[in-house]
Amino acid sequence: MELGWLLRGWRTGIVTTPYPTRPDPPPQGFRGRPQLDGERCRIDDGCTVCVEVCLPRALRLETVPNGLDRRLVLDLLPCIMCGLCVQACPTGALHMQSDGELAVRSPQDAQTIVPLEMEVSSDGHI
Amino acid sequence: MSILDWARQVRLLHPNEWEVVLTPANLTTTVEALCANPRNHFTDMFGVEMGGERQLRLLFALDSEHGWLHLVVPVTGDSPHYTSLVEVCPATLWYEREVAEECGIIPSGHPGPLHLRLPDDWPEGVYPHGGGFSWQDKIPAVAPHPVELASAPDGIVDYPLGPVRSGVVESGHYLLRTAGEELVDMRLQLFYKHRGIEKRAEGCSLLHLPLIAERISGTSAFAHSLALCEAVERAAGIEAPPRARYLRTLFAELERLYNHHGYQADLCQATGLVVGQAQFDVLKERLLRLNARLAGHRYLFGLNVPGGLSRDLTDTERQVIDEELRFQRRTFTVLEELLFRSNSHIDRLERTGTLPPELALAWGAVGPVGRAAGVDRDLRRDHPYAAYAELDFAVPLETDGDALARARLRLEEVRQSFRLIDQILGSLPSSAVRVPPEACMVRPGVSALGWVESPRGEGVHWLSFGEQRQARRYRVRTGSFANWQTFPAAVPGHNILTDFPVIEQSFGLSFAGADR
Ligand code: SF4
Ligand code: SF4
Question: From ligand 2's centre to the CA of B210, what distance in Å?
């Protein structure tokens, strides 16, 4: 082998990072994953803007197993980290985290759920 | 006389984009006449069904006119036929098979009318782009009906390779026919990664279309979303602001750079030059990290939007690019010199995997593969888009058509990309980077073409809109699709163990891009 390569390799030294022993955070502005803040979400007021812009249906309205209530679900498994929901949300309830560590232990861990409070009238009907 | 004078019913659709409507009976003579001029190039062929009417559509690049010509052939009946064009234009071979299986328009006299992209268990008579099929429809299950190939004659051994292989190689299957260690022939089975991307785009709004285009091939995400956005902008009759056009050029060249570094790294891996591989991978990784900083995504997803770009470049970022470019230039010069001093590497490339220039031209090879075999075409120069018309760069050309020519060509292209980026950073106009979304409005029923010289060759996107301004039909011809057709021609006569990996890497093709 051409000796120059050896020299070149030696001069370059180690360029791989010691991640995960030491953190190697992505740069600012990196689109890691969307995060949903239930406190700021206005789904109760009928807002479904994010559900409408999400192409892979990672944000969706679901019926709770009791068959009555509904909830907003952000599911990171189908999410493609496009950030369209963040741009569209009128209340700032969604934002993009620059975090690149996306592994979860179970599919449920990848979900954020905002329950939808139903107005219940005095006779018990919704 | 130019084809535009010759054809009487040519209609101008958009600047540099013409259309002529033909009957199946006069298609062959028209294609023959077009192919007689070496400056006209067959680019694409596909079927369309709109409002119950089926059309066979061909696209030619008219380099002398810097324009594009659509041939539109309306067809009728349950099983419409036309005379196969393979004899007058060999490059149509795969395209005709695709049209037949996806639209049910049959080429009479095709030399090998088999399925191309659809899997073995796809039911007969179900056409993804015909018969009102929707991507949400369930496909009835049928027993697989694989094609039985004739077994090898005595003394010849068929060696199957893939589709699952080591490393991060994409899925593709080669049937290598060998006599001892010598390759005598090969068969190619691609399309394991066919995801129906074009079909999925149907019904999508302008907001979502770039997301789809980016996923055709991750390593050409910016190129494909650019071609798509250019098509949308042409359909809307607008142009991206000057700053966006320059920045799009910048990102397109950054994409070319990291791809070309990755290419040299892969080629070094094929010849066993591990330090060279690591060195080029370092350059590539630095660019991916730069991309992440500039675009929020290592592969530049999410940047292109109809009407411009989703984000601007700050002055600090401009300096960061400038500094990185200086590092890249310095290192690249050293690495290039080392490559040419490494006989163990160069000898393996020389006269390996030769694609003869006449074959490259006849089979429509594009991009670096075509230019390494004397096909002097580059959409950036011949059909300028983004800001290329305002910038100064050369289009390198090689004529040997072997692996060495392909590697040398890409090295020179890297230098030209450096030049382009330098000019862009020095002359970046100040303006908005996006026209307001309400100004980017397509008329219902309009269609338009977008094109790009991606790192792997020309990508051409055709987009037609429906009444609700949603995509009605999306068609993508990638550089890899065009070049895969030429690949088997470069293989016979070589050694299966030592040469085949080099030939494969030297073409530098994408499976996902071809499969769509
Ligand atoms: S757009 Fe924002 S406020 Fe509206 S439902 Fe979604 S997260 Fe909640
Ligand atoms: S980032 Fe994109 S895919 Fe993910 S939830 Fe938001 S809109 Fe949906």
Answer: 14
Cβ of A42 below 6 Å from ligand 1: yes
| C-alpha of A15 from chain center | 30
Whether ligand 2 lies within 6 angstroms of the CB of A82 is answered as yes
Q: Tell the residue nearest (CA) to atom 3 of ligand 2.
A: A79
Tell me the C-alpha distance between B202 and B49, whole Å: 12
d(CA A70, CA B32): 63
Chain Cα centroid distance, residue B216: 10
Nearest to B296 among A5, A30, A53 (CB): A30
- Tell me the pTM: 0.92
* Ligand lying closest to the C-alpha of residue A53: 2
Residues B167 and B238 in one domain: no
Ligand 2 in reach of A53 Cβ (< 6 A):
yes
Q: Do B73 and B172 have their domain in common?
A: no
Closest residue to atom 8 of ligand 2, CA basis: A54
Could you say which of B207, B282, B301 has the minimum Cβ distance to residue A12? B282
**Which domains can be identified in chain A, with CATH numbers?**
30-100+107-116 (3.30.70.3270)
Q: What is the pLDDT of residue B164?
A: 86
Q: Give the whole-angstrom CA distance, residue B135 versus residue B196.
A: 8
β-strands B447-454, B304-305 pairing: unpaired
| pLDDT average, residue stretch A103-124 | 73
Q: Could you give the CA distance from residue A108 to residue A112 in angstroms, rounded to a whole number?
A: 8
pLDDT digits (tens, 9 = 90+) for B66-89: 999 999 999 988 788 899 999 999
Q: Are B167 and B224 contained in the same domain?
A: no
Distance CA B98, CA B105 (A): 9
Is B95 a domain residue?
yes
Residues B344, B238: Cα–Cα separation, whole Å: 52
Number of other residues whose CB lies within 10 A of the CB of residue A116:
17
Please provide the average confidence, as pLDDT, over all residues in chain B. Answer: 91
Is B296 in contact with A2 (Cβ distance < 8 A)?
no
Closest-approach residue (CA) in chain A for B304: A82
pLDDT at residue A124 tops 50: no
CB atoms within 10 A of CB B455: 29
- Say which of A5, A12, A82 has its CB closest to residue B338: A5
Round to whole Å and give the CA distance between B258 and B276.
Answer: 15
**Per-residue model confidence as pLDDT tens digits over A7-66:** 999 999 999 889 989 988 888 889 989 999 988 988 888 888 999 999 999 999 888 777
Structure token digits, residue B445? 């029923």
